[in-house]
TrEMBL record:
Residues spanning the membrane: none
Superkingdom per UniProt: Eukaryota
InterPro entries: Znf_C2H2_type (IPR013087)
Coiled coil: none
Listed name of the protein: C2H2-type domain-containing protein
Length: 163
């Protein structure tokens, strides 16, 4: 892992490992903050910026992306387009999760497959927890280690209370 640093006396950033000059001239707030990032982090940020269309007309018309500066680094914010919602995320996948969890948009429901149970969850881990707690499926039991005690609990906190 290498760090970007200002090359002494040049006013340019350089790659600490390769010694090459990075394309941006130092001296403004954005590039001065970039030297704190690893090369890999910087490349990831630039790749994200390149993959997202940030056009002033598009950003104003549908609110899907707004250009913002966070700690001196350009970040493309993804803003929720639901009326009255101020949520924004740095990553599109987080906005997608927000829309599913808060607004029920593009939700993939996970349904319990047990007879007579109509439980459904937005996340697979919630369904797994439901099956363990309600139907005793794939339960990891916590056993009391005291001699002669047969107490067991699904939740480690309950075992602790028992002690």
């Amino acid at each position: 892992m290498s760090l970007n640093k200002f090359a002494p006396g040049t006013g340019f950033l350089r790659d600490d490992m390769g010694g090459g000059i990075v394309e941006e001239e130092a001296g403004n707030d954005r590039t001065e903050a970039m030297w704190l990032l690893t090369v890999e982090e910087r490349e990831r940020i630039l790749a994200i910026k390149a993959s997202v269309l940030v056009d002033d007309d598009v950003a104003e018309s549908d609110g899907s992306a707004i250009d913002a500066i966070d700690n001196g680094v350009d970040i493309c914010w993804h803003q929720c387009d639901q009326e009255g919602c101020d949520y924004k995320a740095k990553l599109a996948c987080n906005l997608k999760l927000h829309k599913a969890n808060i607004h029920d948009i593009e939700v993939r429901w996970h349904n319990c497959d047990q007879d007579g149970c109509d439980y459904k969850a937005k996340e697979a881990r919630s369904l797994k927890k439901h099956k363990a707690n309600i139907h005793d499926i794939d339960v990891r039991w916590n056993h009391c280690d005291q001699d002669g005690c047969d107490y067991k609990a699904k939740d480690a906190g309950n075992l602790k209370k028992h002690m």
